[in-house]
Predict the 3D structure of the following.
Amino acid sequence: MLYPQHNPYRQVHQLATYWQIQFDPDGQGLDAGWTKGLPQGRPVAVPASWNDQFENSRDFLGPAWYQVQFDRPWGWDRQAIYLRFGSVNYLADVWLNGVHLGSHEGGHLPFEFLVSEQVEQAGNLLIVRVDGDLASDRVPPGNITGGEIDFFAHHDGIYPQTQFDFFPYCGLHRPVVLYASTPGGIRDITVKTEIDGSTGIVDIRVEHGLSDAEIHYALNGQSLPIVDGSRLIVENASFWSPESPSLYDLTVDLTRDGEVLDRYTLPVGIRTIHVEGSTLLLNNEAIHLKGFGRHEDFPIVGRGLPPAAVIRDFEIMKGLGANSFRTTHYPYSEEMMFLADRLGFLVIDETPAVGLFFRESGLERRTTLVQQYTRELIARDKNHPSVIMWCLANEPHSLRPAAKPIFQELYTLAKSLDDSRPVSIVSFTGVPEDSFDFLDVVCVNRYHGWYFEQGRIADGVDAMEQGIEAVYKRYQKPVVLTEFGADALAGWHADPPEMFSEEYQAEMIKGYIERLADKPYVAGTHVWCLCDFKTSQSTGRAASLNTKGVFTRDRKPKLAAHTLRALWKGGGEQ
Ligand code: GCB
């Protein structure tokens, strides 16, 4: 799925910054005819979560109704017009001028409708009903009752009752745009790259609906012939890597009789990613991931897209010497993924499948949703050089026998959609995690010295090391420690270190990284997490925050940030 872009053949029109919203706690909107207009809307910012914008909406999870009006941009009368949503959490139903266009389930992934027939010249009314309620047959799940959970007892009774550790923010979280392109024009482009010595090979597939059209390709403005039906050959190519994130502009022109009908320009990074034995190879050289898990979580904006804060997060990661992150626990914004390409980050790209459990009730529905998310994520992010691995789930409660065949099928699906990247899941058990028998990389989260061996960093580091060695011994694949960390209350100090102090967090993180540094099969360590973030209320989360950030929620460094900079960048370097 292509990201909308502006050029002489395509236009993007951003809808208003302030829409109207009306909450519908009694679920009366449909019967009361709100699809034709909201009786008592009030202004709301888009994109943003609704929860922190109003006095009375923090814990309200829907349904809520959004409304906006727009006119058709000039010159669009003969264009194919699409209405595209970057992310709506969780369930969206969309009406345009009273016509139900369709619905989409699952946050964090884009969806669009062809609306050329419905859009009038002026006064179009767009209505979106958003339902973010938590349910056991949704993904991620929540409000689970009756002993359905195999693990995570402390998640029972938290409020809101999520089966995951982040606040279930709701709303129109990413840009909503109209875009226009040539009817039958370019619908999709898939690029895969290979390396042969100093030569780069770019394999391209273009989907379009104009059977009599020709396709022309240019790289950085230079026209290139296609070889073997689908390949561009780039002599003396600059390969993409974190140290040198070279991108080429690939321009695809759809032409007829020499006239350009449609154009799309895609940034392409030429690079390869492979697993060989227990090593992860980028451009045929071993790589080591240094980085973080993180949340799209900001005061007031919630899980909405704040462009400046995204830049800030890249800045603080770079400043520490990080080269990688995992999109915990859902796909990050498309805007952030393009920046990752440009700034040279290695991304483990995760679907919104967090908190999966494998008891029967709702299992079929959850499984279908996770398959849908896998398809949608790969369709969205397949062309990013920064994406080095697909992660199909975080910490599934996978000890039940149903889990393995479900992941086997999911793995096969992911590989059939993209055979060019490793595929994994992130496990908190590790041994045994039956699915690691077939997954390409072993990704595990470890909290020794925090949830286990509490207050004892040295014992925790020993236990972590033993666990990682056991995982490697059992599966003989590259291992990424995808989460480890400790809560630290900014400004709270203790000597000797005590839990929740900045010293404890810093020392534990250092202990983990140093202990794993000389294990060649450890392909990376991701600290949990970059910044403190909002989560459900519980005794385990002071101030409703997970404070395992090495930065505060407003991006101020804790001691651990300085420790990481010294570890990753070396002593004095800033
Ligand atoms: C985990 C989860 C993450 C939590 C973290 C914690 O294992 O993957 O979502 O926030 O632990 O802090 O407990």
About this structure: The chain is about 20% helix and 30% strand. The mean pLDDT is 96. The first strand starts at residue 11 and ends at 14.
